[in-house]
């Protein structure tokens, strides 16, 4: 059987934790930060974990993760 290719766009955006969760960065942190609340900017600095339904889609894109 041939190997399955990994979606490179997903590999650059997501990582798997040791327990199998999918870790990602928050969105809305790139530009126009002056119009966003300070609390949102602070909380979006840290990573987040994807919901189970979204994580299942990422697992399909990254078969060897």
Automatic annotation (TrEMBL):
UniProt keyword terms in alphabetical order: Ribonucleoprotein, Ribosomal protein
Any one GO molecular function term: structural constituent of ribosome
InterPro entries tied to this protein: Ribosomal_bL35, Ribosomal_bL35-like, Ribosomal_bL35_CS, Ribosomal_bL35_sf
UniProt keyword Ribosomal protein present: yes
Taxonomic source organism: Arboricoccus pini
GO biological process, one term: translation
Domain of life from the UniProt record: Bacteria
Residue stretches of biased makeup (Basic residues): 1-11
NCBIfam families in the record: rpmI_bact
Name recorded for this polypeptide: Large ribosomal subunit protein bL35
Span list, region Disordered: 1-43
Gene Ontology cellular component annotations, sorted alphabetically: cytosolic large ribosomal subunit
Family according to the record: Belongs to the bacterial ribosomal protein bL35 family.
């Amino acid at each position: 059987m041939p190997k399955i290719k990994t979606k490179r766009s997903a590999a650059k955006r997501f990582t798997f934790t040791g327990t199998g969760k999918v870790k990602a960065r928050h969105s809305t942190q790139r530009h126009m930060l002056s119009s966003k609340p300070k609390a949102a900017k602070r909380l979006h600095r840290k990573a987040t974990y994807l919901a189970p339904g979204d994580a299942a889609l990422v697992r399909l894109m990254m078969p060897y993760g």
